[in-house]
Amino acid sequence: MIDTEVNQFPSLTWHHLHINHSYLRAEVMNEAEYTCSALSEGLTSCKKTQAELSPVVQSVATGMGKEFDTSFTQSLTDGNVQSLCVTVSSGAKPEPVLFTCKASDGKGTALDVVIEAKKESVSSFVFLFEGDVKNESALGCRVRVRADDYASVHVSFVNLLSKNVVHYTSFGSVCAEHASAELTQVELGASQSLCGQLHTLNGYKALCKTRTAWFASGSQAVDVNYVAHHIAKETESNATFSGVVSDSASKTWRGTIQFERGCVDACGEENEDVLLLSPSVVNKSMPVILCDEEAVEGHHGSSIGKLSPETLLYLNSRGIDEKTARALLIKSKVQAVSRFIPDEQVQQKVQIFLDEVCAC
After folding, report:
1. Which residues contact 80 (CB under 8 A, 6 or more apart)?
2. Residue 204 burial (CB < 10 Å; 0-12/13-18/19+)?
3. DSSP codes joined into one string, 280-299
4. Is 0.85 topped by the overall pTM?
5. N or C: which end of the chain has fewer CB within 10 A?
6. Rounded to an integer, what distance in angstroms lies between the CA atom of residue 152 and that of residue 70?
7. How many C-beta atoms lie closer than 10 Å to residue 120's C-beta?
8. Looking at residue 328, what is its pLDDT?
9. What is the pLDDT of residue 229?
10. Residue 9 has pLDDT above 90, yes or no
11. In the predicted structure, residue 16 carries a pLDDT above the cut 80
12. Whether the predicted pLDDT of 18 surpasses 90
């Protein structure tokens, strides 16, 4: 059972804002039901218990926080759920791998994945979460990435779950010299979506890139925590977050760029762009830069707005009614991110899901 605070803010602010952390209570009864596309040359996989994982892998922290990692690991052990370990061979450039994960009706299930990318490899992994269940369920996924020198790893999370599922994803990457970790995330389904992203830039000129989009409607809740941890010299991070919040939905975003002493000439940038379509929504945004090094460059910001009467008037003059205009704006924000998913069928599924939710 996971019963802990998650997405803790690295720099605490006023408690009454209710943005310092979120809370997750979810069972992990079994391994999540999933299918995996064929592994091409250069990829190998195996299953390991938590005790069998190397200390190096176990030391990779993820974005939902230390308490989550401890609780999640213990839940996997209690439920006899093993970790799927994928290794990308040195210099390999395999085809993208698609994991399709299904929610289990009335159950709490989870998937734990470890990706070790060897030197000069280039790899992509897509995690599609879907399932229309009748009873309240939970589906979680933790992905830990270690990228060796000059390795490149791209991970995509796509949430197309029904609205009676609690969904959580916790991502963590550690990048060595000239290595890069890229995360593309689309959050459209589930009653509650909790997303944690932590990039640790350990190596000289390591790079991380994140792009995240969401659409929250009805009573949905989206909670995102992003941390780019710059440790080595000339490291670079770039993150964009965009989405739409409608009806009585809520969204919380915490974005942190952390510069450690010694990360000379590091550069970090984070930006959020949110469109509010209802006066009843709850939106919380907190972009922060924590800096212990002078010779760095950091940029952060958050843009929050609503659909202006002038925009509606312009669209109406072109024969586009308000409902269609809203749908166009929602789709444009999501598709600006989903087009980076390296799987055309998954992109089409996102389009179909958007068509359905925008028609409601």
Report:
1. none
2. middle
3. T-EEEEEEEEEES-SS-EEE
4. yes
5. C
6. 27
7. 17
8. 86
9. 97
10. no
11. no
12. no
Q: Are the C-beta atoms of 283 and 254 separated by less than 8 Å?
A: no
**Residue 173 reports pLDDT greater than 90:** yes
Residues 6+ apart with CB under 8 A from 29: 79, 107, 108, 109
* DSSP, res 318: T
Tokens 């963590």 — which residue?
A: 172
Residue with tokens 């939106």: 283
Question: Dihedral (C-alpha) 241, 159, 122, 180: value to the nearest 10 degrees?
Answer: 30
- Determine the pLDDT at residue 156: 98
Among the residue ranges 26-30, 46-50, 89-93, 270-274, the one predicted with the least confidence is 26-30
Q: Residue 358: phi, psi to the nearest 5?
A: -75, -20
Residue 261, Cβ density class (10 Å: 0-12 exposed, 13-18 middle, ≥19 buried)? exposed
With H, G, I as helix, E, B as strand and everything else as coil, classify residue 61.
Answer: coil
Note the helical H segments in 270-343: 309-317, 322-338
In three-state secondary structure terms, 33 is strand
CB 112 within 8 A of CB 83: yes
Other Cβ atoms closer than 10 A to 345: 11
What distances in angstroms separate CA 122 from CA 90, 179, 204, 308, one per listed residue?
9, 10, 18, 43
Distance in angstroms (rounded) separating the CA atoms of residues 65 and 115: 19
